[in-house]
Amino acid sequence: MQHSDGLIRTLRAVTGSSNVALATPEATVFEAMLGGWESQQHSRGLRSTTIATRRRLIVRLQEFSGKMPWEWNAGDVEDFISGVDRRVIALSTMRHNHNVIKTFCSYLIDPNYDWVEICEHQFGNHPVQVCLPWNTVAHKAQYEGSGKRRPLTFDEVETLFDTADAKVEELASSGKKGALAALRDSQIFKTAYAFGLRRNELAQLDVADLHYNSEAKHWGRYAAMHVRWGKAAGGGAPRRRTVLLVPEFDWWVPGMRQWVEQARDRFDPGDL
Q1: pTM of this prediction?
Q2: Which ranges carry the Tyr recombinase domain (predicted)?
Q3: CA dihedral in degrees (36, 41, 47, 49; nearest 10)?
Q4: Closest listed residue to residue 81, CA positions, set 29, 130, 39
Q5: Alpha-carbon distance 176 to 164, whole Å?
Q6: pLDDT tens digits for 107-158?
Q7: What backbone torsions phi and psi does residue 266 show, to the nearest 5 degrees?
């Protein structure tokens, strides 16, 4: 980031001077644009993986079009999405790519930054917004997945859980290793289903996240689940929520109680 900040300062100095020229102006300005955009996103609190993914998409667009950002037009985006990304079928992915390009262009043309002035001085041209209402995917539906994907039926879910439980019994009765891990995995499947958790939310759970519910005292500490690592939005912190166990899933309680009170401590490796 310090390197990109130095490039931006150099470009500003060059823009203010009529006697200085850059050795490789196109590559220098493009790299400084990417670096400045990365700094802005880090300042917003976005994750490094998100920023890196966005950068790669912009570089792909530049390589595909053979043009620099100050030369892009709406047709370049349309050709890119329908050309190199023709393999992308999901509307959600197309909309994500449009949003990334739109965000990058918005950064370049923002009057709080100097890119318009720098580009006009260096190239006699300047960036414009190339993602417009008539050439981008609108977010009109809450779910944009393929119709080929369907949820499991109740019979299929029951078969999954029965298979997981049978694996525990098989390993325990055979004396082979893995019964504890199989019991853990069985409870992971059931917990995800009973509380509607995402993968990361599920992976980050701890026994301290088991909570009481005054309206379901008979379940004790297994009446609710405190989710600490909910999906973040807009560079914010992970969102928290508490999910109450509903009566239809009361079958989850005995299995989790067995795991927490009888099996979990057996994973203790002892003195290493």
Answers
A1: 0.70
A2: 147-272
A3: -40
A4: 130
A5: 16
A6: 999 999 999 999 999 999 999 999 999 988 876 666 666 777 888 999 999 9
A7: -75, -10
Name the band, by pLDDT with cuts 50, 70 and 90, for residue 9: low
Pair of tokens at residue 162: 């029965």
- Which amino acid, 198? R
Put the strands of the sheet holding 239-244 in their side by side order: 210-211, 224-230, 239-244
- State the number of CA atoms in the 13 A half-sphere of 100 facing the CB: 22
Evaluate if residue 189 carries a pLDDT over 70: yes
CA–CA distance, 203 with 109 (Å, rounded to integer): 41
Q: Which residue has the tokens 């050309």?
A: 83
For CA atoms 167, 172, 174, 176, the dihedral sign is positive
Give the closest residue to 187 by CA, choosing from 269, 268, 261.
Answer: 261
Cα–Cα distance measured from residue 131 to residue 95, given in angstroms and rounded to the nearest whole number: 11
Residue 63, pLDDT score? 95
What is the band of 3 on the pLDDT scale with cuts at 50, 70, 90?
very low
Collect all residues with Cβ–Cβ distance below 8 Å to 190 and sequence separation of at least 6: 161, 252, 255, 256
